[in-house]
Amino acid sequence: MQKNQLFVGTFVHSKSLNQLEYLHDAAIAVDKSGKIVAIELQFYDQKQAAEILYAKLGWDDGDVQVRACEEGQFYFPGFIDTHIHAPQYPNAGIFGSSTLLDWLNKYTFPMEASLAKLPRARRVYGQVVRRTLSHGTTAAAYYATIDVAATNLLADLCLAAGQRAFVGRVCMDRLAPDYYADEGGPDAVLARTRETIDHMRRIDPTGDIVAPILTPRFAPACSDGTMEALGRLARSDDLRVQTHISENVGEIALVRELFPDAADYASVYDGFGLLTPRTVLAHAVHLTEAEAALIHRRGAKVAHCPCSNSALTSGECRVRWLLDRGVGVGLGTDVSGGYAPSVLEAARLACLVSRHLAMPYNAQGDGRRAPADIDDEERARATLSVEEVLHLATRGGAAVLGLEHKVGGFEVGMEWDAQLIGLNMVANDEHDDGNADGTGSVEKSSGGGVGGVGADEGNVDIFGWEKWDERIAKWVYNGDDRNTKMVWVKGRLVHQRPSSTSS
Ligand code: GUN
Ligand code: FE
């Protein structure tokens, strides 16, 4: 059983889509169940304030673990990866010049098939969970493989490591290679899926940490019977659904060929009851107005995967356009379509991809507008800010996974899913408290001597003169897992970066 915990220092989280809130000299009390029970501001006299707080909460002094953050550190909500393929992790970075459909056949299906060997699955899945936790991912929507035992193993490993995970056995009973196909028809596909659902309900009856998610790989890979059965199950058991949509133009052409009677790609899923408020649609790069409107009506959400969409040359998801149409958006790493298991990387790439959308002419310089259907008004608003991508990485992702009342921000009643971020603090020998350039105040200047420049502390140097929003921008554009010092899920410490590492 965890102790009651008191976190003290600077807390940063999303207040709204384009605004971060900074709580300095604050304290957050987290009870034994991992819930935030109090947030105290202006916590200057730590000892006195703690006494008052403990009295209010009925906490016994000796039963509280206090953690104060150091200069240059702050608490941030855990990241939410709304789309990641655990079995593809060994392929991260391997895609050559392939695009979606040849990439699947050349790299992806052979790798996924190889994880039917459980010792191999254990090794790979163990690495994915450890690695994503080390990057601050406190919740993830995972695709596993078609294999029941390996899918159950992924759920076991997430639960043991304490990472919130929605784990889906991949359904693919059409156009699959013979060495990696979900055999036996829709009844068998459904039965295998039920086995994994039953397993997850057994190991985590509350579904708090690990829960199932129905996973028809994508429309071209699923028979009508399978999609119909999954749609029925989603409705009867109120289950989450994840799939891919409109990622690549070849894929869209294939869907048109396979479903000639459907109005469009989104309507294929809708026809099988697979577009629900609990559906996560990955990519959504090439949607039409009608599809965006349908997705909005059904309340389904989008996992934006800028790393993957760039690596596989799929295209640029129009995030602002989706948000303008009321479609919820979160970030996904889409390992290994995406090469990086880091949501921070996804956030910075979301910034860059949005800037590509904002540029009037494509990089080839042939004068062609790219994409062709974006008008000047949309282009002018396309750029996403640091604040916005951090919102997508936390509260946006939480909403995509139906966790918005539980995680994604620091509020009383929410759970403590958080990361302690440390940026290098360059010693400030001048003790120059007055901001000579008048750019505004940083609450506490370095006392000097703190730091570790030269140690494996990451790429982010802060000099003490930055405003907090500038520090956060430096973290988003230069940061990595070296800055992720500690990670908690539901109050439990699930990752701690070794304090001194030799490289
Ligand atoms: N579409 C169908 N399967 C996949 C997959 O594994 N990754 C990506 N990015 N797209 C897909
Ligand atoms: Fe994917």
Automatic annotation (TrEMBL):
<dbReference type="InterPro" id="IPR032466">
    <property type="entry name" value="Metal_Hydrolase"/>
</dbReference>
<keyword id="KW-0378">Hydrolase</keyword>
<feature type="region of interest" description="Disordered">
    <location>
        <begin position="431"/>
        <end position="453"/>
    </location>
</feature>
<protein>
    <submittedName>
        <fullName>Guanine deaminase</fullName>
    </submittedName>
</protein>
<keyword id="KW-0862">Zinc</keyword>
<dbReference type="InterPro" id="IPR011059">
    <property type="entry name" value="Metal-dep_hydrolase_composite"/>
</dbReference>
<dbReference type="InterPro" id="IPR051607">
    <property type="entry name" value="Metallo-dep_hydrolases"/>
</dbReference>
<feature type="domain" description="Amidohydrolase-related">
    <location>
        <begin position="75"/>
        <end position="494"/>
    </location>
</feature>
<dbReference type="Pfam" id="PF01979">
    <property type="entry name" value="Amidohydro_1"/>
</dbReference>
<keyword id="KW-0479">Metal-binding</keyword>
<dbReference type="InterPro" id="IPR006680">
    <property type="entry name" value="Amidohydro-rel"/>
</dbReference>
